[in-house]
Please model this.
Amino acid sequence: MPSPPSFSTRVIRWQRRHGRHDLPWQATRDPYRVWLSEVMLQQTQVATVIPYYERFLERFPEVRALAAASEDEVLALWSGLGYYARGRNLLRAARAVVERHAGIFPTRYDDLAELPGVGRSTAGAIASIAGGERRAILDGNVRRVLARHAAVAGDPAANAVSKRLWDIAEERLPARDIGTYTQGMMDLGAQVCTARNPACAACPVARDCVANIEGRVAELPGRRARKPQRRRRVQMLVVLSKGEVLLQRRPPTGIWGGLWSLPEVDEGLDPARVLRSRWGLAAASAEALPAFEHAFTHYTLEVTPWLLRPRRATSAAESGTVWLPLTELAGAALPSPVKRLLARL
Model:
């Protein structure tokens, strides 16, 4: 029996016939647009990303427009996409492109890897798709394909396992058509070699996939040991006065970093007393609203909101706080669960 074509040749052929070709960022090799899509796609599904990508391009059609934006503008458009450090790094990287590269988005791997928020895999994706540079990628989908095909066991995040997968990724790069191959590897993991119920019968590299041959598809790649999910309880103050709500800027790091949000109060404290001691406002009424939960990667936040209506509102809030008209909620840089809570009011 003749040997099958090389791994990369089969992936390229499959991509041309069966891969995705209608995603909005696939019609261009503009590195700015490729970069924008790659950052948004980190830990986020394609269907979720598409409307955000289109809104970003409408507001910031090129990197100079993004570099000139305020952080609030960027985070407002990012609201709901999660992992907000990506949004902040997006702005930092755009400004770095203007400062270091005269506003011309780079396509060289070495230049890309120096931009904030651009790691090894993201730089490889942009350099290969937009610049034709022979570089490997190793996002979650590609990691799964390679771990199964080469039967690389163990936690993919472990240093030794990660290094082995990177070595395999680089060994299999084609001599040409690198952009098609890169897209093919991403599509193969997203459409065929999925985490659950992979379509091995439709896979172009199933013939010599060790996991498929040995019946180990379900066990590869290895699973990361999960820690027990932590829970954290807080109270949020919904302070409403004359059609405005009191908001507080969150710290630049941590969850919802840099966004505006509702003031938080530790569980057990009296919200009305905190309102008086912190802002000098006496509550005319205090009402507990229905509690809700919001899941993060490492813990679940349990929130009890309190609706407080002060007898009077101050003309100016303390540093780091602002009174926002409820009519301006849609364009504000708020966490999505906070925006939904306020929209219901």
Notes: The radius of gyration is 24 Å. The mean pLDDT is 91. The chain is about 40% helix and 15% strand. The first helix runs from residue 7 to 18.
